[in-house]
Amino acid sequence: MCLAIPSKVVELRQGNVAVVDTMGVRREVSLELMQEEVKVGDYLLIHVGFALQKLNEEEALKSLELFEELVRELEGEEGEG
Question: Which residues contact 11 (CB under 8 A, 6 or more apart)?
Fold first, then answer.
């Protein structure tokens, strides 16, 4: 199973590379597979270092909220054992 967490573009670099923020973690990703223009502020789905798809902000924020809720629940379960 693969989970793609929405990531926000915070910087565009030469060589078709973007820096994205994924729940507070920044990393470089390739834009080589993107067919549409990517701008700073866009939300993307990333898989193994490649941007695959652009999301609208509302959809991305809703997904991020669900991921954060899942993380909180998992952290709570770890504290119970």
Answer: 18, 19, 40
Contact assessment for residue 49 and residue 29, using Cβ atoms and an 8 Å cutoff: yes
Q: Which of 8, 1, 3, 2 is nearest to 59 (CA)?
A: 8
Question: So where are the chain's domains?
Answer: 6-80
CATH number of the domain located at residue range(s) 6-80 in this protein: 2.30.30.140
Q: What is the pLDDT along the chain (81 residues), one digit of tens a residue?
A: 566 789 999 999 999 999 999 989 999 999 999 999 999 999 999 988 999 999 999 999 998 899 889 888 888 877 665
Strand ranges in 1-81 using DSSP code E only, listed in sequence order: 6-13, 17-22, 25-30, 43-47, 50-55
The 10 Å Cβ neighbour count of residue 7 is 25
pTM score over 0.85 = no
